[in-house]
Amino acid sequence: GSGADNDLYINQAVVFIEDAIQYRSINHRVDSKSIWLYRWYYSRTCQWILSLTITIILALAFIEKPSSLTVTSDVRYRPPAWNPPCGLTESIELLCFLVFIVDVSVKSYLIGWEEFWKNKWLMAYILTLIVSLTDWIVSLSLFCPEAVRIRRILRPFFLLQNSSMMKKTLKSINSTLPEMASVVLLLAVHLSLFTMFAMLLFARTKDGQQDKEWVRYFRNLPDSLTSLLVLLTTANNPDVMIPAYSKNRAYSIFFILFTVLGNLFLMNLLTAIIYNQFRGYLLKSVQSSLFRRRLGIRAAFEVLSSLKETPATAQQSCVSTGALRRVLQKVEMDYRCKQAIMRSLKMCSCDQLSAAQFQKLFEELDKDAIKQHPPSPEYQSNFMQKMQFAFGHPYFGYLGNVVALANIVSICVVLVMDADKQPSERDDFFLGAINCFFILYYLLEMLLKILAMGLKRYLSYPSNRFDGLLTVILLVLEIATFSVYGFPHPGWRPEFVGLLSLWDMVRLVNMLIVFRFLRIIPNMKFMALVVTTLLDLVKNLRAFAGILVVVFYAFAITGIMLFKDAVGPLGNTSILSILPCFCTLSCASTFDHKFLFLLFQTFFYIKKVVVLSFKEKCDFMALFQAEVICHLLYLLSVHLICRWANIYFVAWWLISSVIWVNLFIALLLENFIHKWDRRCHREPLSDIEYQRTVELMFRDVLEEPTEEELMEKLHQHPHLQLCR
């Protein structure tokens, strides 16, 4: 009947609008049962269960053999780690696989058979599940003794395929690779030519005492190539040139030319190419997201125009405002956007909406999120008004910053004076007294600001929430200190009581005071601009963080499989006997032998090794660790692994340093430039905060899709039959 058809059209419009809000594709089944299943699948509960399942299966690496559940990280001293019995983690894996099977089945059904064969991600999803289940069956049939588990390397794929933004980012990276390959090839040519020059320049001579450069770094082609590749990361600089430089100063020209051409020109040229190309591809990705949003809104308009209540005499398609209100009541969307659209509907004088009017209503989704601060309280008393003016003035905040700076300076003075004193000689009276004074001032400042601004307005500012929270914590710690150790007095050095000593309590208070000094950031506009840029990256670029987790996880699992048993607890005596052999390494002067016992033992420790490569952009330690590991494996007679160990670390360096860090720099620059331009073209408003997403970063340069493009795409919908 017409009533059932109208309900179907309403539900279809609801789903299409929700697709537009989330930038989802509308190419899915739109019958009544499929719509119910579709909304159930994308409900918060189902998506939360799916996210929890992905988190659990990724976290299994911390408890699987070799387990990371130990306090100390040194295999020489830690007790045997608890390893789960065979079948425990496998049972958890099976439950996760069942959730993924349901997930891929629902997705495949909703998009239809024809769309399924076009979707490479779904086919890869099914293939990953098949390989993982096969590997799981093999593990159980062998009672879990195998060290190589293919399914562990494939786990990050479940995280990757669940995020549309991560898939778009990966597609953009893949499209950028041809341009990056040209510079990487030029870098390889540069490396190869200088390797040949080095082997000719530092060839073996008759005088063995003068061949230190040849012995340590340029004995053969692999050693020469590795030495210069490490030099490209500056990890072995200047160690690699010291023997030659000691022999003749002129040899430094070779290393200077190599570093200048490689680091200053080629590496920075690569950064520029990645920034230019990736920004273009990311812009295309965001343009496609805008098209999806416009297409979803237009699809909702088309199905609503098919309602029986639409006037038959209308020359063009239109939608009644009543039907749109019914749709908005069912749509799950941001409360601010929904209220703004409802207000626009009330202000509209017509009962029917054209396609342009309908689309214009939903442009509210594209606008910056604006946070309006509550008004200050209105006092009737003249005295209270003066108090409000004085303590609500920015100068009162500046005074608080000066006091906080004085607090930091006083703490520094006391720490410098007591640096060389024994704990028994230290007098905590002065430090305790000044802390008590400043904390009382912070409490008074907070109360006066609340009096002037009102509690709601005070809490609406993130800087005030940060300041107030730390003030309350400091007050609680100070009260706890006085209740346990009494009030400060000369010679205040009581015995240890309770959980923390007096010195520990004072140190904790001082650390929070130093942390509280970050309150000055909002008052320094350029610093605030830099900090908000970083915070926006943290909030909005989750896709890049997800890809980083995928890369870390895959390399960590691979490292465990390759090198897990290569280093064992040899004891101090054995390791000291091995260390002289490391004196030939380029970085032996700074090498800490304790590091040997942290290598690739568990998932937690391999992540430490991998994280080291993010220490500095131009000081990537990964290749240094590769050289150390390779030599150690050689000393331990693991010759087959040693020959190929460098490939693993060079691959990590290329992905993390050459590609990933440059991509991060590109987006950091893009975000900062956008914020700088907005700062220059708009005066800052004290009561308004603008929040920006990745899509809105490029909003000013995006092109609106035309009517013909939208209708052509709608008529190609595999499951939606339009009336016109």
From TrEMBL:
Keywords of the record: Calcium, Calcium channel, Calcium transport, Endosome, Glycoprotein, Ion channel, Ion transport, Lysosome, Membrane, Repeat, Transmembrane, Transmembrane helix, Transport, Voltage-gated channel
Family annotation (Pfam families): Ion_trans (PF00520)
Q: Where in the cell is it found?
A: Late endosome membrane; Lysosome membrane
Segments forming domain Ion transport: 55-278, 397-672
Cite the GO molecular-function annotations of the record. Answer: calcium channel activity; intracellularly phosphatidylinositol-3,5-bisphosphate-gated monatomic cation channel activity; ligand-gated sodium channel activity; voltage-gated channel activity
Tell me where the transmembrane regions lie. Answer: 45-63, 92-110, 122-143, 180-203, 251-275, 395-417, 429-448, 469-488, 508-531, 543-563, 575-600, 620-641, 647-669
Query: What is the protein's species of origin?
Result: Podargus strigoides (Tawny frogmouth)
Please report which protein family the annotation says this sequence is part of.
Belongs to the calcium channel alpha-1 subunit (TC 1.A.1.11) family. Two pore calcium channel subfamily.
What name has this protein been given in UniProt? Answer: Two pore channel protein 2
Q: Which domain of life is it from?
A: Eukaryota
* Gene Ontology process terms (BP): calcium-mediated signaling; endocytosis involved in viral entry into host cell
Q: How does it sit in the membrane?
A: Multi-pass membrane protein
> Gene3D superfamilies under this entry?
1.10.287.70, Voltage-gated potassium channels. Chain C (1.20.120.350)
Q: GO cellular component annotations, sorted alphabetically? A: late endosome membrane; lysosomal membrane; monoatomic ion channel complex
Catalytic activity of the protein:
Na(+)(in) = Na(+)(out); Ca(2+)(in) = Ca(2+)(out)
Corresponding gene? Tpcn2_2
